[in-house]
Specification:
six-stranded parallel beta sheet; alpha/beta; about 400 residues; Rossmann fold; six-stranded mixed beta sheet; Dihydrodipicolinate Reductase, domain 2; globular; binds nicotinamide-adenine-dinucleotide
Length: about 400
C-alpha cells in the first residue's frame, strides 16, 4: 500500500451503482483517497465516476481490459462489474499488482475463488471482499454481544431473509440476477451476506449444507388475466389504465424511484418521458410474471459447522426484513432457581445508533429476565429485527458504504 501520509489511490472497473457508491464515500473523505481511473462501456457511468473523482487527471477507459492493459494506475482496484465478470478482471489486476476491493461474489466457482486466493498470496496483495454488513454498527454490535459470551454458547442460529417483493422483482425477476446461468444463484447473489454473517457469528467454518428452493410465484401461470408483456404496453393492471398491480413498472417514477438509480443508464438525469421510453424496451419494464427469470423465490438452507453447531436460513421474496434468533443452552446458574425459566430477549432496531447501544434498562438494548410461559423456550435467546426493509435501508445508507443487495 502507499505511504500513509499519501492518499490511497483508487481505480474502478465497472462504474455502476456499487463502485460509484464506494467512490462517493472515498471522495467525501478529503485527502485520504484519490480516484485516478475508471472503466465502463456506458459513457454516462464513466462520466459520473469522473465527476465523483473531482480529479482533472482522472483516466477513463471503455472496458476493464483497456484499463488493465495500462501500467498500474492505483493502489486499489474496485471490481464493481456484474457477478459473471469478477474473476477475469480480478485475476489480471492481482497480476498487475493491485490490491482489490472485490464485490461479492468473489467469483462464480470454488476453483476461481481458490485461484484468486492463490494469486493474492503469490503477489502479496490484499483482497477485501464486500461483505458490507460486517462493517455496520448494528451487525458489529450483535457480533460483539455474541463474542462477549453474555448469551452463553450459541449452538444454533435460525435466520430469515425476507427480500421484499418489489426488491425481488427488481433484482431477481426483471433484473441482473434473474437468470442464474448468466449471473449467480440466489443463495450467492442475495444470501451470501446471510451465510457470511451466520459463519461470522458462529465463529466456525461451515462443513455441511443442504438446501431446497424453487421458483413458485413469478411465472407466467400466475400472471393476472389480460396482463400485457410490458407494463407500458397498455396493460389493464398498470396505473395509466387505472390498475393497481403492485409490480407495475410505472412505480419507478414514484414510490419505487430510488430503485431506478441503480439501473437507469444515466445516473443523474431524470425526465419522466425518457424514463417511460426506457421502460418500453428495458428489462425493468417487463411484466413481473412474463420474464425469462429462473432465480428461486423461496429457498431454505441447513448448515452444520466444524464446531458441531447448526444454523438454518430461509429466504423468501414475500417477507420484508431479516431476522435471526440465536439460541444457547440455559446457563448453569439458572438451575439454582428452578421455579423460573430465563428467557432473555435483546431487541435491537437496525435504526438504533451505535451510541444508543449501551446495555442499560432504559436503552433500546435491554436485558430482562422474565417468568417464561409453558410454551416459551428455556435458555437464552436473542432476536433482532429491522422494523422494515425501509428502515434497514436507511440504516445501511447512513452507516455503511451502501445498500445490501
Ligand atoms: N456488497 C453488496 O451489498 C452488494 C450489493 C449490490 C450488488 N453487489 C454486487 O456488486 C456488483 C455490481 O453490482 P451493481 O449493482 O453495481 O451493478 P451495475 O450493473 O450497476 O454495475 C456494473 C457495471 O459494470 C459495467 N461493465 C460491464 N462490462 C464491463 C467491462 N467489460 N468493463 C468495465 N465495466 C463493465 C456496466 O456497464 C455497469 O456500469 C455485482 O456483482 C453485485 O452482485 C454487492
Amino acid at each position: 500500500m502507499s505511504n500513509l501520509s499519501q492518499p490511497l489511490t483508487i481505480a474502478a472497473v465497472g462504474c455502476g451503482s456499487r463502485a460509484r457508491t464506494y467512490s462517493q464515500i472515498a471522495a467525501s473523505l478529503g485527502d485520504r483517497y484519490r480516484i485516478t481511473a475508471g472503466a465502463d462501456p456506458v459513457p454516462q457511468r464513466l462520466e459520473a465516476m469522473r465527476e465523483i473523482s473531482d480529479n482533472p487527471e482522472f483516466q477513463g477507459f471503455d472496458s476493464a481490459d483497456a484499463l488493465l492493459a495500462q501500467d498500474r494506475l492505483a493502489d486499489v482496484l474496485i471490481i464493481g462489474t456484474q457477478d459473471n465478470y469478477h474473476f477475469e478482471p480480478a485475476k489480471k489486476a492481482l497480476e498487475k499488482g493491485y490490491h482489490l476491493l472485490l464485490e461479492k461474489p468473489a467469483a462464480q466457482s470454488l476453483e476461481e475463488v481458490n485461484e484468486l486466493a492463490r494469486l493474492a498470496k503469490k503477489y502479496d496483495r490484499k483482497i477485501l471482499l464486500c461483505f458490507v454488513l460486517r462493517y455496520t454498527p448494528f451487525y458489529s454490535k450483535v457480533h460483539e454481544i455474541i463474542r462477549s459470551g453474555r448469551l452463553g454458547d450459541i449452538i444454533t442460529i435460525h435466520a430469515a431473509e425476507g427480500v421484499d417483493a418489489w426488491h425481488h422483482t427488481h433484482s431477481y425477476v426483471r433484473g441482473n440476477w434473474s437468470r442464474t446461468d448468466l449471473s449467480t444463484p440466489m443463495i450467492i447473489a442475495k444470501c451470501s451476506h446471510d451465510t457470511d454473517y451466520i459463519s461470522w457469528f458462529m465463529n466456525s467454518r461451515c462443513t455441511s449444507v443442504s438446501s431446497y428452493g424453487r421458483l413458485s410465484h413469478f411465472t407466467s401461470a400466475h400472471a393476472p388475466e389480460g396482463a400485457a408483456d410490458r407494463c407500458t404496453s397498455g396493460c389493464p393492471h398498470a396505473a395509466p389504465q387505472g390498475g393497481n398491480c403492485p409490480y407495475d413498472a410505472h412505480h419507478y417514477l414514484d414510490k419505487h424511484a430510488r430503485w431506478l438509480r441503480m439501473v437507469y443508464p444515466h445516473p443523474t438525469e431524470r425526465n419522466k418521458d425518457d424514463i417511460i421510453k426506457w421502460l418500453e424496451s428495458s428489462p425493468w419494464g417487463r411484466c413481473a410474471w412474463k420474464c425469462d427469470n429462473n432465480a428461486v423465490d423461496h429457498q431454505v438452507v441447513s448448515m452444520e459447522f466444524e464446531n458441531g453447531n447448526t444454523a438454518s436460513l430461509t429466504m423468501t421474496a414475500f417477507d420484508c426484513a431479516a431476522t435471526s434468533r440465536f439460541t444457547a443452552p440455559k446457563p448453569a446458574f439458572a438451575a439454582a432457581t428452578p421455579t423460573m425459566d430465563f428467557q432473555t430477549k435483546i431487541s435491537l432496531s437496525a435504526t438504533t445508533t451505535a451510541e444508543k447501544l449501551k446495555p442499560s434498562r432504559s436503552n433500546p438494548l435491554t436485558m430482562t429476565a422474565t417468568k417464561a410461559t409453558a410454551a416459551a423456550t428455556t435458555g437464552w435467546s436473542m432476536r433482532w429485527m429491522p422494523s422494515s426493509a425501509e428502515t434497514a435501508q436507511k440504516a445501511h445508507s447512513s452507516n455503511t458504504p451502501s445498500k445490501v443487495t
